[in-house]
Amino acid sequence: MKTKPRLGRGIDALFTGSLQDDSTQIIDLPVTDICPNPIQPRKMFDDDKIAELTESIKVNGLISPIIVRKINTKYEIIAGERRFHACRNAGLDKIPSIVKDISDKEAFKISLIENLQREDLNPMEEAEAYYTLKNQFHLTHQEIADSVVKDRSTITNALRLVSLPEEIKESLRNGAITTGHARAILMLESDQARCALLERILVKGMSVREVEQFASKKASSSSRNKRDHGMESLSSLLSERFSTKVICSWGKRKGKIVIDVSSKEDMKRIVEELTRNDNPL
């Protein structure tokens, strides 16, 4: 009997039962019966890496089977889409597969975490994957961190990238800027200032250190009020809770809470979160 590979206890930890139990069997499925996952979190595939994997499969075969689930007459990929493309390019008629009977929710979680654990996602795809785990499946920052074996602060910092303007997100996706650049841009308050800084980075080819220095000076000069650490703490708490920028401020007699939203869907999500009966806020 073939040895059953494991994807890591991070994925298993999300479910009541193990992803791969003693009854798991590997079967050869026709390539024509397998279809990609429509909710694959990875939007960009590296053609060179797929070509490299294709050549390896031609010589050694597929060492690690893909994981699929039965959808009508087809088998939808849960984990291993890059391996699927490489097998098809290598001319294989059948692909070693593990068939699992799981829900849409579980399949989505596995697809996200499998990519995160294999480091197949660019920084923006990774941040959006964490965002989906938090908001669609209601995992806490710590639960996400435990699942992908990373520090909680790494998850929190990555989620902050979701609040950036779309123009900056796209630059992060295509590699025009790095995560360090993006985090430095977050030091500025307004989207207008952030986009202006992006343009400056692209034109001048600024290093992360240069961007940090520029953003720090800009943020300091635009801040007129004395720092209120109590309000900053509340802002940070709510920003983490809603995965978007939140500013709490207090005047002489009254205060305000400003929540940034990037779309109508994002606004709807936050309103639903605020009006939930079990919301502790």
Describe the 3D structure.
This protein has 281 residues and is an alpha/beta fold. 50% of the residues lie in helices and 12% in strands. The chain has helices spanning 9-12, 47-60, 81-89, 104-117, 123-135, 141-148, 152-160, 166-173, 179-185, 191-204, 208-222, 229-242, 264-275, and strands spanning 26-30, 34-35, 66-71, 74-79, 94-99, 246-250, 255-259. Strands 1-5-3-4-2 form a five-stranded mixed sheet, with helices on both faces. Strands 6-7 form a two-stranded antiparallel ribbon. Helix 4 runs antiparallel to helix 5 (123-135) and helix 5 (123-135) packs across helix 7 (152-160). The longest helix is centred in the C-terminal third of the chain and has 15 residues, at 208-222. The protein is globular, with a radius of gyration of 22 Å. It starts with 8 loop residues before the first helix and ends in a 6-residue tail after the last helix.
Give a short synopsis of this structure.
With 281 residues, the chain is an alpha/beta fold. It has helices at 9-12, 47-60, 81-89, 104-117, 123-135, 141-148, 152-160, 166-173, 179-185, 191-204, 208-222, 229-242, 264-275, and strands at residues 26-30, 34-35, 66-71, 74-79, 94-99, 246-250, 255-259. It has 13 helices and seven strands.
